[in-house]
Amino acid sequence: MNAGKKEKIIQGLRIVFMGTPEFAVAALAALVDAGCQIVGVITAPDKPAGRGMKLTESAVKKYAIEKGLHILQPEKLKDPIFIASLKDLKADLQVVVAFRMLPEIVWNMPPMGTINLHGSLLPQYRGAAPIHWAVINGEKETGVTTFKLQHAIDTGDILLQKSFPIETDQTTGEVHDRMKEIGAAVLVETVKGIAENTLQEMQQASFSNETLLKHAPKLFTENCAINWNQSIDQIHNFIRGLSPFPGALSKLDNKILKIYRSKKEYHPKKEVPGTVYSDGKTYLKIAAEDGFIHLLDLQLEGKKRMLTEDFLRGYRLANAQQGN
């Protein structure tokens, strides 16, 4: 098939895109740039945000407005009015990136089905926070997967995958920014493959033993407290895995401390885990099981996020030990 004919097939597909955050914008933009016909964009309703609780549009909605795309913002995905509006779009294919769980009446609507872009190498890290948990668990590699939606979350047949390394000190935010570009490219490749009928679907059950799978459940504030009795490797991965959001939490002078970046100092001498050490000028570190975690980038309750040296210049520590 020549290139011109391929382009016509891709452009002829009527696609409905579903997504909300910045991660999804990269995917939608890649489809638009590839010449795909986006007949509708489904995104979250505007929500109050900020001090003034002003109604704020999702990142996807802002992009869709800029490109003049048709937008739907249903409160409930089973709402008969929304279902009717969705049917009226006569989509051949639906594409989902970082959106809500869909009811069957929605994902089973288009003749070519609904595909999803997921931020892991499925079947590993099914769930809402795959990037966070891969970094928290110290994985050296992650990737993206496109797959067909079915009843159980993140279990549909795999279409395409692409892996890439996670560097030693990368945060979830940094992995996210790289992943959204890689994912966008894989999504376009997937849509082209569907249009040309060249993809071979693979069942996830054939990839690995279910008992060996790692999961990626949603993170809540109560899951973000650092356990200083762990190893410095575990704590360092936990900090970068929760950075920049929601942030790893500890206490400093009885105030909540959020830590965004750290470095490890292995030390053979056992210190009491959780003990704070600082010279009051250049370093702030906390004892763990096998050494110290140096805090490099932090935010104390009531203050702005800042580098540790800047923080120490304007703050007198009440309960820090000198030396180690």
Which fold name is given in CATH as the topology of the largest domain?
Answer: Rossmann fold
Categorize the overall geometry: elongated
- Please report the distance between the alpha carbons of the first and last residues: 69 Å
Order of helices and strands: HEHEEEHEHEHEHEEHHEEEEEEH
Based on CA atoms alone, the radius of gyration comes out at: 23 Å
The parts where pLDDT drops under 50 for at least 5 residues are none
Report what the structure shows.
By secondary structure, the chain is of the alpha/beta class. 28% of the residues lie in helices and 25% in strands. The chain has 2 domains: 3-212, Formyl transferase, N-terminal domain (Rossmann fold), CATH 3.40.50; 221-313, Methionyl-tRNA Fmet Formyltransferase, Chain A, domain 2 (Roll), CATH 3.10.25. The chain has helices spanning 3-12, 22-33, 59-66, 80-88, 104-107, 130-136, 172-196, 232-241, 308-313, and strands at 14-19, 37-42, 47-49, 54-56, 71-72, 93-97, 114-118, 141-148, 158-165, 248-252, 255-266, 276-278, 284-287, 291-300, 306-307. The strands form 3 sheets. It has a 7-stranded mixed β-sheet with strand order 5-2-1-6-7-8-9. Strands 10, 11, 12, 13, 14 and 15 form a 6-stranded antiparallel β-sheet that branches. Strands 3-4 form a two-stranded antiparallel ribbon. The mean pLDDT is 93.
